[in-house]
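Record 1 of the preview.
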Amino acid sequence: MLTWSVEERNLAAETLFRFSFGAIYQLHAFNGDPHPGNYLFNPGGQVTFLDFGLVKRFADDEISLFADLIQAMVLERDGAKFRARATQAGILSPDAPFDDETVRDYFSYYYRYVLEDDVTLIDAEYAAEGAERMFNTSGPYSELLKALNVPPAMVVVQRITLGLMGLFAQLRAEANWQAIARELWPFVDGPPSTPMGEEIARWRAAHPYPG
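->
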């Protein structure tokens, strides 16, 4: 699949993105093992998903936390509000000695691909930065890392994000990820932004979800 055209690689990435993040908000569940061995690719954005041995089911309060953090970081660009919600969730201690801008800057990586309503390329440099931020205990965010207490649900989401970013980097995938995400976020419920989104909307209109 890595030898396919840019258009086909982007279609495959869009399918992975929609499956991954759509499942979180529509089903409150996700297959937490995103790697190439669990996917079979066909042209036209068709992907067969294999191996559901690691599935995380999210509680309503966990989904609400994800939504609140996205709302603060992406939709409102409010660093103070993001920090307050992260503190309330126990991700950051109330007395952590960091200003709001430092906290916002650190966490913004995990939202960067959806921060702008524009096409964003995900490449090797982008993916490497995620691993650097999460695991480098001697880097510029070393003191902040020591102060973090990541809830189990967030650990799974980090695994999902880093796994997908690694795959997308191999594909050099680019899309308007924010526009696609707005379709998936139930607190936005945006209109279809791609031909795939339009096809999904038509299918759903004909097959109402009973849940």
